[in-house]
Amino acid sequence: MTERTSRWGLRLLALACALVVWFFTSVEKRERISERVLDASVTYNLPRGAILLDPIQTVKVRLRGPDRKLRALTPFAISVALDVSGAAPGRVEEVHLAAADVQRPDEIDVVSVDPNAVPVRLDLEVSRSLPVVPRIVGEPAAGAVPGQVRSLPATAVVRGPRTLLAHLDSLATSPVSLDGHAFSFEQTVSVLPPDPLVRIVQPAAVTVQVPMHNPDESAEETPGRGRPERSPAP
Predict the structure, then answer these.
(1) How big is the CA angle at 185 (ends 132 and 158), to the nearest 5 degrees?
(2) Do the domains spanning 32-115 and 124-220 agree at the CATH topology level?
(3) Residue ranges covered by each domain of the chain
(4) pLDDT tens digit string along 76-129?
(5) Fewer C-beta within 10 Å: the chain N or C terminus?
(6) What is the CATH number of domain 124-220?
(7) Half-sphere exposure of residue 8: CA atoms within 13 angstroms, side-chain side
(8) Residue 110: CB partners within 8 Å, gap ≥ 6?
(9) 32-115 under CATH 2.60.120, yes or no
(10) Chain segment 191-211, per-residue pLDDT in tens
């Protein structure tokens, strides 16, 4: 192969590559433009030490772009990020949503966001220690009667909105069933958060002590006196 022939071959190869690039580029430019509405999750950038009350979880975003790319979109590819780090706890503020707040792939434009403004209400997040009150259910066996139920430990630490914790006076546990029990027993159960915004810091579980008493034995025996004497049979 001569040098001249080789040169022409390289020129033809370069021309073919240019034609391929031009073809796909022109196809993309001629691709139909469509619109689509998706539910986008909302995330909030909060001030330090604050907690968000009644947040809006999703908004509807109307998008425009190449039909092929719009059809390939999933809800996980679209999200809305709100910066509310300057909001003051205790006040309700309305934050307006713009196209710049919507995170989406390239070549996709935002037409509208619904709603275009969301209310933001913040509260201070605090901790508090509260007494644990075991929840007792069911009926004991053999006529036994439960005594004073105890929780070990007797208190638990919770964390949540200050205004919500201020109205709490105790924490409940998972149910402790008396069914089938005639004697004293212990059971480890979970401490239940009273609200989705309240979390149990420690302990997550407590030991509930349930003393059981038999009314018949209490009537027959008096502390310090022993069993009463029976009269001899005639």
Answers:
(1) 15
(2) yes
(3) 32-115, 124-220
(4) 889 999 888 888 888 888 888 889 899 988 888 999 999 999 889 999 999 999
(5) C
(6) 2.170.120.40
(7) 4
(8) 61, 62, 63, 64, 99, 102, 104
(9) no
(10) 999 999 999 999 999 999 999
